[in-house]
Structures are given as structure tokens and as C-alpha cells.
Design goal:
Length: 374
């Protein structure tokens, strides 16, 4: 996405002033490397002298995303000649009030120019650097490059950092209730307030919040923020899960943050050799069958019912012929068949088995197959 800088130059002094407005499209570097360095300026008679009140690079520190920033430099003409200013070649597209393209505006000896640079952080994240050029007739300084640089952060930050805002709990036994703690803060709004929290599956994922204590703020190097405690209540549905947490705040530009909570719930029913059934490439003319073993603990017999399955698949669950070493384990085999003549294409979905087990009412098994012609 393109980033635009507005460079406004207002000449002030005893004489009438003409405002100079530059709209700058910066490159990735601090200057346009394709633009040749201006040749030394030849000035007949008295020469101007550009003097800045500070360095041309302004470090703004840290800003949030979707914010505007401004900085003003004062440029003085301390030479005996008249200082001329115009746009910096191909690095920018300029509009000069009441003047045609390529014209200049002047600064008399002893007068000053206020140069105001405005930038927008947009959705940048990390190091931020933009620049804008003006050309002068000062032989010692034919081009001035004004630079703004700093770090852009999201308006809402979680700590510890969560890549992709994803919290993965891994494998969770369904008789446990694990939790994860996060801190939420805003770099540019120390008085941030959480207005509401919604969860896509509130029965499984529960979120509580409280303000950070003084000790927590000191240890996290935060001025303010909230502690979020995210609990997973597995319940009786086994298999992979993914739920979304939406946090709404009073931040004016980025009021909403989202977290994805994921993992796999295990219980008294284990799927072997894995929780995912993947077919090798299947010829449409021949079809194919694959199976997994369901190992059930703690119940003499278990009834399975196929509640959901991708279209075209035939799913059968029956007791396995293999004897178990102890009566505390029972084995069942789920056989999945792709019938001959199944149209070519991908089969990608989930098989859902309903059970009568008191600790596992449902088992979810993802399945994938690629049916090829022939």
C-alpha cells in the first residue's frame, strides 16, 4: 500500500508569502536512489545559505497504527542572496499555490521558512521510515532530505506476544481445565477501557479480565493494561477445536482485537494411528477404503452413531476383532469407503460420531481424499 507524506512550506517574513505544498510518495529507502544528486548550483552574485534549526532526521519514537504525526523544521536563509525552493525532482509530486509546475518560491535574506512534515502510520508494523525532498539554490546544499523514522506498533498489544494472535493449548484431556494468561495494553491510550468480550463458543472458552496490579505493570514495563485469563472447558466433545475471542475497547482508531483459541480435546476415546484420516490418491473408477481404530477406556461397551460425514463417503463403526489385554479397554474400527464411480475432486471434511459414553458424547475425525479420474 502506498504511503503519502504532506510537506507544507510556508514562507514568513515582512514581504508577502507564497505557500509551497508538496505531496510526497517516498520509496522504501530514505531517499530516491534513482534520482541523480543535483549538480552544484551556479549562482551569480550573492549566494543564499540554508540553516536548519535541527537535524533533518526526526525520530518520533513509538506510534500506534492508523495514526497521523507531524513535525516542523525551521529553515533560515542566512546568506546575502535570495533562497529559492522547489520540489525535489522525481521523488515527489508538487502543487505550488498560484505557480505552475517547475516554478519556485523564494525566501529573502534573514527570513525563515516553516517546513511541516505530516505522515500516516496506516497498518505498518515495526520500523517506519519516510522522507521528502526539496531542492534549493544554495551551492553548499542543493537538496535537503527530511526524514521521519520510528517504530509503529498496533494500537492494542498482547503480552507475551502471540504470533497471529493465536493461542494453541495443544492436547487437552477433557477432565482438565487449562488456562492461559495474557496482558493487554495500548501504547497511545494509557486509560484504555475494555467495553465487551464475546466468544464464539462461550461454553468451551471463558475469558475473565482485571486491571494489572502495580507489581505486574512494573514487571511488564507497562503504564497500564488488563490481565486476561483464558480458560478452556473441554466438555464431552473430542477432537480439534478453534474458537474466536473478540475484545472491544474504547480505542478511537483500533477498538477491536481478536484472539484465536485452538487445540485438541482428548478423552476416554482415542483415535489410532492419528486424529486425522488421509487417503492416498484414489482412482475414481476403483474407489478405496481406509480405517482407524477407536480405543475406548472405562466402559464395557460403547455405541457409535455416524452423525455427520462428507457426501459420497460410506462410514461404518463396528467392534474390532483384535483382543485387548484388559477389560478396561475396548477397540472399535471405523471404516471409511469411497465407492467406485465417485466423481473426481477433493473430499475435505469431518466425520462426527455420537456416542453413549458418559465422558465423550462426540468424536470428530477430519478426513481428506483426492479422487482422480481413471
Amino acid at each position: 500500500m502506498k504511503r503519502w507524506l504532506i510537506l507544507a512550506v510556508l514562507v514568513v517574513g515582512l514581504s508577502a508569502a507564497i505557500p509551497l505544498v508538496l505531496s510526497v510518495l517516498p520509496t522504501a529507502s530514505t531517499a530516491n536512489i534513482n534520482e541523480p544528486i543535483p549538480a552544484p548550483v551556479q549562482v551569480d552574485g550573492p549566494v543564499p545559505k540554508v540553516v536548519l534549526d535541527e537535524d533533518t532526521t526526526y525520530h518520533f519514537g513509538t506510534m500506534a497504527q492508523e495514526q497521523y504525526g507531524t513535525h516542523t523544521w525551521t529553515v533560515k536563509n542566512e546568506g546575502p542572496g535570495v533562497l529559492e525552493l522547489k520540489k525535489g525532482g522525481s521523488t515527489c509530486s508538487c502543487t505550488i499555490a498560484n505557480l505552475a509546475e517547475g516554478d519556485t518560491t523564494t525566501v529573502q535574506p534573514g527570513e525563515t521558512t516553516q517546513i511541516k512534515l505530516t505522515w500516516e502510520t496506516r497498518m505498518n508494523n515495526g520500523l517506519f521510515e519516510k522522507s521528502a525532498d526539496i531542492l534549493t539554490n544554495d551551492p553548499a546544499r542543493p537538496r535537503i532530505t527530511f526524514i521521519v523514522t520510528g517504530t509503529v506498533q498496533p494500537a492494542l498489544i498482547f503480552f507475551p506476544p502471540t504470533p497471529g494472535n493465536i493461542i494453541n493449548f495443544g492436547t487437552i484431556p477433557n477432565d482438565q481445565t487449562p488456562h492461559s494468561d495474557l496482558a493487554l495494553t495500548s501504547p497511545d491510550r494509557p486509560d484504555l477501557k475494555i467495553e465487551s468480550i464475546t466468544v464464539s463458543n462461550p461454553e468451551r472458552v471463558k475469558v475473565t479480565t482485571r486491571p494489572l496490579t502495580d507489581e505486574e505493570k512494573a514487571s511488564l514495563n507497562m503504564d497500564s493494561g488488563y490481565r486476561l485469563i483464558i480458560e478452556v472447558h473441554p466438555g464431552r466433545v473430542l477432537g480439534n477445536f478453534q474458537d474466536e475471542v473478540t475484545i472491544k475497547t474504547d480505542h478511537p482508531t483500533q477498538p477491536e482485537a481478536k484472539l484465536t483459541v485452538s487445540g485438541r480435546i482428548s478423552g476416554p476415546i482415542t483415535v489410532l494411528p492419528g486424529q486425522f484420516l488421509r487417503f492416498p490418491p484414489v482412482a475414481s473408477r476403483q474407489g478405496d477404503s481406509e480405517s482407524v481404530v477407536l480405543v475406548v477406556r472405562g466402559q464395557a461397551t460403547t455405541q457409535f452413531e455416524v452423525a455427520e460425514a462428507p457426501k459420497m463417503l460410506k462410514v461404518v463403526v463396528e467392534p474390532d476383532d483384535v483382543k485387548t489385554e484388559t477389560d478396561s479397554f475396548r477397540r472399535y474400527r471405523m471404516t471409511v469407503t469411497i465407492p467406485p464411480g465417485t466423481p473426481s475432486g477433493e473430499i475435505n471434511g469431518t466425520i462426527v460420531l455420537k456416542t453413549d459414553h458418559p465422558l465423550a458424547s462426540e468424536v470428530k475425525i477430519p478426513v481428506f481424499a483426492l479422487v482422480e479420474e481413471g
